Amino acid sequence: MTINKAWWKEAVGYQIYPRSFMDTNHDGIGDLNGIRSKLDYLKDLGIGFIWITPIYESPNVDNGYDISDYQKILKTFGTMEEFDLLLSEAHQHGIKVIMDLVINHTSNQHEWFIESRSSVKDDYRDYYIWADGTIDGPPNDWVSIFGGSAWEYDETTHQYYLHVFAKEQPDLNWENPRVKRELFSMINWWLDKGIDGFRVDAISHIKKAPLTTKSTNDPFESFKNVSGIETHLEELRDVFKKRDILTVGEANGVSAEQAHQWVGENKGYFNMLFEFDHISLWNKSENDLLDVIHFKQALTKWQEALANGKGWNALYMENHDIPRSVSSFGSEEEVFWQASAKALALSFLLLQGTPFIYQGQEIGMTNMPFTSIDEIDAVDTKNFYYEMLQTGLAPDKAMEVIRKTARDNSRTPMQWTGEEYAGFSKRTPWMVINPNKRKINVLDQMDDPESVLNFYKKIIQLRSQNEALIYGGYKLYLPEHPQLFVYSRRLGDEHFVIIINLSKEFASADLPENVQIEDWDLQLSNLNKYEIHQHTIFAPYEARVYKHK
Ligand code: GLC
Ligand code: CA
């Protein structure tokens, strides 16, 4: 098999949520100069590209995912000159820069929408999706991903507009060729600046079913990967195809079976996709335990669907929309915290695909013990909280659910040091700092050879030095084992086996015939080598990487 090499297959990515990364002018909000000040840190970690979540002008109803001007930088973050400086310094560090591309919707403060809502005859009316109401109110029964009806009534023209997310995020009308032309020229404008690609937000929602379609069991079916979306995506691909860039689509609703069409080497719309299968496995309610068998199945399904050059995977365990992985998939308990953070690192970094580390994940940051809804910023979480109260749930019970599920769990400021403001700022930040900053911070972990941070570094290094860990095939062993995740990566003679105990109990297993440990060298372990007494017994959250001799 010939290997199609690409820089974006070899690099490890790092997602930056700028608001919470590093504040340099001490207004309590992270900024572009803050990112620039940490380029050495990122380089040292082994990062090949950063993905920066939206920094464009925005009223920040959904923290930048509601864009009011695609070609301006939000003042709080800095200026366009500071962006250019960041871009060129990142490049000098050998770090590429991926921007967030939010083209399913704009802010309701975008000039297109302000025009659009002004009159049914306005030239921009068809930039958005407007419809007459019915006797029941909204045009149909569709509900928004952020709660409530997906329609908002507008007094000026007595019609409703569609919003898949918050009501301040009206959906663009992709059936209008003018909309596409504008968006594509904006994309080219950014690419001409020399950025290295896009993470394409909510892109599986750009096509809507006919408005007469009723909601089904899946409340979002009418605007999730709806057939006919191909045409729009092909046009978008033709814009991307002209450049050597990384594109990753956020593709809620795209199954592993369909993935090759979305990311196939030649005709795919994107280089890779963020899938939702393994992430949705984390049970948001009662049971805290990870369902290891289904977790392995979900990951393996994607690994196999895109194997042998059929496509490429995007690998992740965290992002700005989900709670911290140690808290949901691992354990915050003192005895398990460090080992579980490392075990989770090995559960995704060495799979086939391009890994994305989310800021703070590399030091094992955990969920925030939120005590009141006033500490919450995310609009969907607030909606959810008040919906729960309306059903009669007591506030403290509702807060319990929020503590576990809120996406703000991953938006607390980056813990650089154990100081009062965690080395993030010199004043109270926009979002509460996790009190465990004294225990979990970058500064302490830099000097500790056993730290989560140094473990991440070692894995990234190992990956960069062994092509099998990048281009090699993937194989799952012991699929039915309820605790162990065992997989191999192989390219010609280069052969690795990764064994991870994803449970709080000891685990044992007879390893498959061809994985007899005597023939293998231990490359990496989250226990001290000498603590490994028995090759076939694994301590809680123990994880090892072996290479064939
Ligand atoms: C994506 C983003 C999320 C945002 C939503 C609407 O899911 O990751 O943060 O709220 O799109 O743009
Ligand atoms: Ca600032």
Task: Summarize the topology.
Blueprint (H helix, E strand, L loop, with lengths): L6 H4 L2 E4 L15 H6 L1 H7 L3 E4 L3 E2 L11 E5 L6 H13 L3 E6 L9 H8 L11 E2 L19 E4 L4 E4 L14 H16 L4 E4 L28 H12 L5 E5 L5 H8 L8 E3 L17 H14 L8 E3 L8 H4 L5 H13 L7 E5 L20 H12 L4 H11 L36 H6 L4 H14 L2 H4 L1 E5 L6 E8 L2 E8 L5 E2 L11 E6 L11 E2 L4 E6 L1
Parallel strand pairs: 1-2, 1-13, 2-5, 5-9, 9-10, 10-11, 12-13
Antiparallel strand pairs: 3-4, 6-8, 7-8, 14-15, 15-16, 16-20, 17-19, 18-20
Helix pairs in contact: 11-15, 12-13
Bound molecules: alpha-D-glucopyranose and calcium ion.
Can you give me a brief rundown of this structure?
It is an enzyme of class 3 (hydrolase). This protein has 549 residues and is α/β, with parallel strands linked by helices.
Describe the structure.
- The protein is an alpha/beta fold and 549 residues long.
- It folds into three domains: 341 residues, Glycosidases (TIM Barrel, Alpha-Beta Barrel), CATH 3.20.20.80; 52 residues, Oligo-1,6-glucosidase, domain 2 (Alpha-Beta Complex); 80 residues, Golgi alpha-mannosidase II (Immunoglobulin-like, Sandwich).
- The protein contains 16 helices and 20 strands.
- Helix 11 runs parallel beside helix 15.
- It is globular.
- Calcium ion binds next to loops.
CATH class (first level) name of the largest domain:
Alpha Beta
Shape: globular
The protein's oligomeric status is single chain
Order of strands in the sheet with most strands: 11-10-9-5-2-1-13-12
Secondary structure tally: strands: 20
The number of distinct helices, counting runs of at least 4 residues, comes to: 16
Whole-number total of structural domains: 3
- The CATH homologous superfamily of the largest domain is called Glycosidases
Q: What value does the average pLDDT take?
A: 95
Instruction: From the 3D structure, determine the CATH topology of the largest domain.
Output: TIM Barrel
Subunit structure: Monomer.
Protein name: Alpha-amylase
GO molecular function: alpha-1,4-glucosidase activity; alpha-amylase activity; cation binding
Domain Glycosyl hydrolase family 13 catalytic: 15-411
